[in-house]
Amino acid sequence: MCGVFGIYGVEEAANYTYFGLYALQHRGQESAGIVVYDGKKVKEWKGLGLVSEVFNEEILKNLSGYISIGHVRYSTTGSTILQNVQPFCVNFAKKTLAIAHNGNLVNAYQIRCELEEDGHIFQTTMDSEVIVHLIVKNLKKGLVNAIIETMKRIRGAYSILLLYEDTLVAFRDPWGFRPLSFGMFNGGYVIASETCAFDLIGVQYLRDIEPGEILIIDKEGPKSYKAFKKEKFNLSHCVFEFIYFARPDSYIFNKNVYLIRKNLGKNLYKECPLQADFVMPFPDSGNYAAIGYSQASGLPIEFAMIRNHYIGRTFIQPSEKIRNISVKMKLNPVKDILRGKEVIVIDDSLVRGTTSRNRLKSIKEAGAKKIHFLLSCPPLRFPCFFGIDFPSSAELIAHKHSVEEIRKFLDIDTLYYLSIEGLLSAVEELRDKVCLACFTGEYPIEVDFSFRKDIAEI
Ligand SMILES: O=P(O)(O)OC[C@H]1O[C@H](OP(=O)(O)OP(=O)(O)O)[C@H](O)[C@@H]1O
Ligand SMILES: NC(=O)CC[C@H](N)C(=O)O
Ligand code: SF4
Ligand SMILES: [Mg+2]
Questions:
Q1: Where, by residue number, is the active site (predicted)?
Q2: Which mutation among 264, 282, 314, 319 tests ligand 1's pocket best, with the greatest number of atoms within 8 A of CB?
Q3: With bands split at pLDDT 50, 70 and 90, how would you rate the model's confidence at 325?
Q4: Other C-beta atoms lying within 10 Å of the C-beta of residue 56
Q5: Where are the beta strands (DSSP E) in 123-260?
Q6: What is the distance between the alpha carbons of residues 165 and 256, in angstroms, rounded to a whole number?
Q7: pLDDT by residue (tens digit) across 404-446?
Q8: Sequence-separated (6 or more) residues with CB below 8 Å from residue 310
Q9: Which of 105, 231, 256, 308 is the most buried (most CB within 10 A)?
């Protein structure tokens, strides 16, 4: 998953982009970049690491301009190397095109091979680069038509920002996998992955970029186009954005994430009403379902697992060794609260089992007498090909093991996963418009199970 932020028609655009990326840091921790246009020149700065590590005041001072796009990356195709930092920029015919992509394409490698046969030279190993090649190849038909041609060719998840000459462009795949919001600010416009990036700056939210929409913003203002006039697509908003990925203060797909997570917790109580001394979350993303469970059950909530604020998300870190150390560093139990108690521990998800295996053991060692572990989503059994780096099926603990086997492995008293129905009822009227593929194995578009993240590198 990644975060994208773009701004048009505002002085010090790069500074605002920096703040926007800061608010979107939870969507990608591997690298960050900003590209800006000042009416004459395009300037860029990017690097590996967090937004705060890549940028400083001095760097931002040199990024003057009134149109800017930025990106925080969590790699899904192409490893974490400098060449793969986004926004990705190309120069051609005295012009510059920069792209910031959130999502993942399922047919990028096939397109890349065809383009390479035609003589195209690639600079990165990301799926996102094929989009740039296709747009440039079709540019003689005009920018909008070039994007339409490209959207007809690529398949998968894409919420995209482009900076091209004096124009900011946003477009989104017709399935609507990833969020993308549009707002107004200081006489200019802002587009971001999540509305939490709007709040920080004081942007007025206008609407979401529609699935299949192309929005062009230039000196004449915003103009919207539809890429697909006849074709029908089943809306497939990523339900995992609600469960884990997005920030609880954001509105995505027109819904507040916090409230949905609370619904998930309430539904957990309906399905699995337990009694215990208290409910406790694995922070951060377990917090809101735990509040929902506590409110529905009347049981008190305790924050018996303390989170170190100087460590980010562990699941999205690329190596298992680092994830294991990070989980320990991140969550530490409060022994005096746990000793002799029967506890209901709630987390949003169990992916590889790194957090649960490691931290439930620490709760036991702290002296808890009984542990019930509840998850606010169904078992994750299938990989994601649409922008979340869910490992291959083999790495997903629920792919090969039954709930009872996992319970035994975790050495706890109860293990319960929310049902698909419990998940769907929590998202209310979006129930027919969400992707559930990582739970059900029913992919909204055809996928290739032989896909590998390093497909262009091996
Ligand atoms: O089974 P695992 O492989 O451990 O993955 C699942 C865990 O990873 C995520 O937390 P993360 O630390 O990434 O972020 P959070 O602070 O938002 O909960 C998620 O919330 C689970 O706690
Ligand atoms: N998670 C994402 O949205 C990643 C975008 C793109 N596929 C990349 O790997 O850079
Ligand atoms: S497979 Fe899962 S993580 Fe991927 S888009 Fe669908 S719901 Fe989201
Ligand atoms: Mg977590």
A1: 2 (nucleophile)
A2: 314
A3: confident
A4: 10
A5: 159-164, 167-172, 181-185, 188-192, 204-208, 213-218, 221-226, 237-238, 251-252, 255-256
A6: 35
A7: 999 999 999 999 999 999 999 999 999 999 999 999 999 999 9
A8: none
A9: 105
Ligand 3 geometric centre to CA of 313 (Å): 18
Instruction: Confirm whether 239 is domain-assigned.
Output: no
Q: 29: Cβ below 6 Å to ligand 1?
A: no
Query: Which has the closest alpha carbon to 341: 409, 275, 272, 287?
Result: 275
Has 272 been labeled as part of a binding site?
Answer: no
Residue 92: CB atoms within 10 Å: 10
* Number of neighbouring beta carbons within 10 Å of residue 91: 9
pLDDT at 315 exceeding the cut of 80: no
pLDDT value, residue 458: 85
Residue reference for tokens 């709760």: 363
Question: Has 113 been annotated as catalytic?
Answer: no
Tell me: cis bond preceding 284? Omega within 30 of 0 counts.
yes
Domain count, the chain: 2
Query: Is residue 438 part of an annotated ligand binding site?
Result: yes
The pLDDT score that the predictor gives to residue 132 is 98
23 CB near ligand 2 (under 6 Å): no
Counting residues of the chain whose pLDDT is more than 90, the rounded percentage is 90
- CB within 8 Å of 322: residues ≥ 6 apart: none
Secondary structure (DSSP) of 125-138? S-THHHHHHHHHHH
The answer to whether residues 131 and 280 belong to one domain is no
Examine the pLDDT at 316 and tell me if it is beyond 90. no
Residue with tokens 């482009």: 162
The model's pLDDT over 185-211, given as tens digits with 9 standing for 90+, comes to: 999 999 999 999 999 899 999 999 999
- Per the structure, the complete domain to which residue 410 belongs is given by 257-429
Q: For residue 57, give every residue at least 6 positions away whose Cβ sits within 8 Å of its Cβ, in sequence order, or none.
A: none
For residue 16 the two structure tokens come to: 């605002």
Is the domain of 371 the same as that of 423? yes
| pLDDT value at residue 312 | 84
Tell me which H or E stretch contains 388: none
Mean pLDDT estimate for the chain: 96
pLDDT of residue 78 exceeding 90, the answer is yes
pLDDT band at 394 (very low <50, low <70, confident <90, very high): confident
Say how far apart CA 150 and CA 173 lie, in whole Å. Answer: 11
Counting residues of the chain whose pLDDT is more than 70, the rounded percentage is 99
Query: Closest Cα to residue 420, out of 376, 372, 373, 356?
Result: 376
Query: Nearest C-alpha to atom 16 of ligand 1 is from which residue?
Result: 284
Six token digits for residue 150: 């490209």
CATH of the domain at 390: 3.40.50.2020
Interface confidence (ipTM) of the complex: 0.97
